[in-house]
Amino acid sequence: MVFLCACCNDDAMPDDETGGGPVAKDLTGIPYNPTDYVFPTPEYFPDPILPPDNPLTHEGIELGRRLFYDPILSADSTMSCASCHSPSASFADNEVLPVGIDGIEGRRNTMALINLAFIPNNKFNWDGKSPTLEGQAIEPVENPVELHEDWGNVEDKLRRHNTYPEYFRKAFGIDDTDGITRELATQAIAQFELTLVSSDSYYDRAVVRVEPGVFFEEDQRRGMKLFMDEGATGLKDAQCWHCHSSGQRRTLFTNGGFFNNGLDSVGNLTEFTDLGHGAVTGNLGDNGKFKSPSLRNVALTAPYMHDGRFATLEEVLDHYADGGHPAPNVDAFVPIIDLNEQEKADIIAFLHALTDTTFTKNPAYQNPF
């Protein structure tokens, strides 16, 4: 996990003498000329789903990037969003469960932040409880097992800050520091997260764009055919694409749906220790179902599953090769998966071809401080 120190002075502006917080400072002398961000959609990707009430601008994205990496959002200035979402891990954290500022473990593995602008159903988190990225960004700040801060305190810190008032003015055109709110802060974070687009893996170069001199090895090709069920003679259908490709099999490597993939054996639908999507929808049949994550950069995001129970891709494939565990709502394709050692190795070779280091090393996504 990446722990960050407070990056700059957050007490630059004086407090109201009545104890009512920082004195409002006029910002109208700072120019407000936001520049629209032209979304760089790869030609073989679906159209991005961008929020009409939060248009992307270069100024908003830069503010969001700073807030994403700044531990000012936490109560003790030791953690930021990036503490659990590191670029090197495809914006996950490689921990079984994340640990917040008080040393308390969360209950679910950190999801990677990748190609969020293309998620088909706009349901974020493992259980799909957040319909927007802005809403998703609100919760970790006040969550007692994450950043454990109060948004009112964060707003005061940002209003007192040496530079944030100018960034908020340039991004959103606020007239004074009282205009700095949690809503605008999370809009900026969402704008930054929407720009996290991965489309330059070895798979993209060798198979989708067919670049000269870039070819799959035989094991990668066999693994791709197993994964995608291309009907090749003598090869099985590994059933992967039902949850991890669907109509966008050459782009997202997820259909954004919620599935019970046979992780736990239960006798009835009320026995799951984590109800997952069912806790959000209230539908008994959704209990034990979790979001199908994108498999782009999956080799960088271990451990796996919503609770981080599998340390390696080999363990994941072993689980599926054994047909999972029985439950009343286990996905119909899981029990029929039957893979030998060579087939599992071939699929893993293909999954490694989905690694995109251009994405993880993109300067636009790195810590700006």
Task: Briefly characterize the structure.
The protein has 369 residues and is mainly alpha-helical. The chain has helices at 58-69, 133-142, 151-160, 164-172, 182-194, 202-208, 218-228, 241-244, 277-281, 313-321, 341-352, 357-360; strands at 258-259, 290-291. It is globular and about 70 Å long.
Quickly count the domains. 2
CATH homologous superfamily assignment of the largest domain: Cytochrome c-like domain
Global structural class: mainly alpha
* Number of helices, where a helix is a run of at least 4 consecutive DSSP H or I residues: 12
Plain-language structure description:
There is one protein chain. The protein has two domains: 1-198, Cytochrome c-like domain (Cytochrome Bc1 Complex, Chain D, domain 2, Orthogonal Bundle), CATH 1.10.760.10; 202-353, Cytochrome c-like domain (Cytochrome Bc1 Complex, Chain D, domain 2), CATH 1.10.760.10. The radius of gyration is 22 Å and the shape is globular. It has a two-stranded antiparallel ribbon with strand order 1-2. It has 369 residues and is mainly α. It has twelve helices and two strands; from the N terminus they run ααααααααβαβααα. It has helices at residues 58-69, 133-142, 151-160, 164-172, 182-194, 202-208, 218-228, 241-244, 277-281, 313-321, 341-352, 357-360; strands at 258-259, 290-291.
